[in-house]
DNA sequence: ATGTCAAATGGTATTTGA
């Protein structure tokens, strides 16, 4: 199985890039974030033409997550099943693997109420991971957390900012402690492997990025990983997302 | 001057969020 996670920053604005990437990369499953679409407007037709079934959980202007699959999409779960008003997580079973696409709240700043919402939300994500059934499991998405300083282009300039604070990093470690492996980091322990670069200031050109898009997989699946990488080419060219797809491949899945 | 994108509103620019 070849699976990717990609924050597309509006599925409407990114549709040409998305469909050409699907044709090029030929993933089996894609976890999408920031569709900024309602379920009504989600482009199921164009995605079906590309060969993928889709499940979407959207709210409109902000947020919105989806799962695209050419190996089936069943048992779809939208949201945590609580009163969260924001469309930030969707789960489904694809090709025998339970997959979730999540869009963790940004947090804005350490003193913003949204930061508390982010920490609470990461806690609920940890509960979901802990409560999973046995079997192949992948939790991927835009975590809006750079797990270590290696995942940040300039840790000194991020002191006091979100995405690198210790409580956020501890929350990600707590999720991993349920038995999940950060597959890109496992395969490439010393490489930054950034997945996001600000649109501003030529950040991509200077590789001023963060690794905030993660694929967390159960340990048995982690042992079957044959490749894991960031598709930086998808960040180049005309009208890119500010995130690049993060891809992993597994044997015998 | 972080100075760019995307969506929505309101009005052909501004606001909000990232």
Could you explain how this protein is built, in words?
The chain is 24% helix and 27% strand. The chain contains 6 helices and 14 strands. It has helices at residues 11-25, 44-49, 113-130, 166-176, 183-187, 219-223; strands at 2-7, 29-33, 53-57, 65-69, 74-78, 89-94, 97-103, 137-142, 180-182, 196-197, 209-210, 213-218, 225-230, 246-250. Helix 3 (113-130) runs parallel beside helix 4. It is globular, with a radius of gyration of 17 Å. The N and C termini lie close together (5 Å). The protein binds one DNA strand of 18 nucleotides through residues 9-10, 12-13, 34, 36, 60-62, 106, 108, 144, 198-201, 203, 239, 241-242.
Features:
single chain, 253 residues, alpha+beta, Deoxyribonuclease I, Chain A, 6-stranded mixed beta sheet, 24% helix, 27% strand, globular, DNA-binding
In short:
This protein is of the alpha+beta class. It contains six helices and 14 strands. Helix 3 (113-130) runs parallel beside helix 4 (166-176).
CATH topology name, in short, is Deoxyribonuclease I, Chain A
CATH architecture: 4-Layer Sandwich
Task: Count up the helices.
Answer: 6
Instruction: Outline the low-pLDDT stretches.
Output: none
Measure the end-to-end span. 5 Å
Average pLDDT number: 98
What is the count of β-strands? 14
Percentage beta strand: 25-35%
Q: State the major sheet.
A: 6 strands, mixed
CATH class: Alpha Beta
**Secondary-structure element series:** EHEHEEEEEHEHEHEEEHEE
What is the spatial order of strands in the main beta sheet? 3-4-2-1-14-13
Question: What structural class do helix, strand and pairing data support?
Answer: alpha+beta
Please give the domain count.
Answer: 1
Shape: globular
The amount of helix comes to: 10-25%
